[in-house]
Automatic annotation (TrEMBL):
Organism: Candidatus Sedimenticola endophacoides
Protein's UniProt name: Transposase
Phylogenetic placement of the source organism: Bacteria, Pseudomonadati, Pseudomonadota, Gammaproteobacteria, Chromatiales
Top-rank taxon: Bacteria
Length: 96
């Protein structure tokens, strides 16, 4: 595991523990001796990642599948029909 991945997992673990304990970021950072500004920054990243993603669902009873790709900036790309994973990967890469 790289140093960057290790650091990311460190902050993700703290973020998850803070949520599980239902504490404010400020209170949790103080309790754990974390730098509040850094903890806020990582928490914002994790929140944005959670808000972005890919979802698939059935459209009514028609049997058609609807896809939605959510980006952290609020953009939502949606379509009905098939999704070719290779084409989708190229699309996401080009938009990143």
């Amino acid at each position: 595991m790289s140093q960057q991945q290790s650091r990311r997992e460190f902050w993700r673990s703290h973020h998850q523990q803070c949520k599980a304990q239902r504490m404010t970021l400020n209170a949790y950072a103080e309790q754990e001796g974390l730098t509040l500004s850094v903890f806020y920054g990582w928490s914002k990243r994790f929140r944005q990642e959670r808000e972005s993603g890919f979802s698939r669902g059935q459209v009514g009873g028609s049997g058609r599948t609807e896809y939605r790709l959510h980006f952290p900036n609020g953009l939502v790309l949606g379509w009905n029909g098939d999704a070719d994973s290779q084409c989708l990967a190229l699309l996401v890469k080009s938009l990143a």
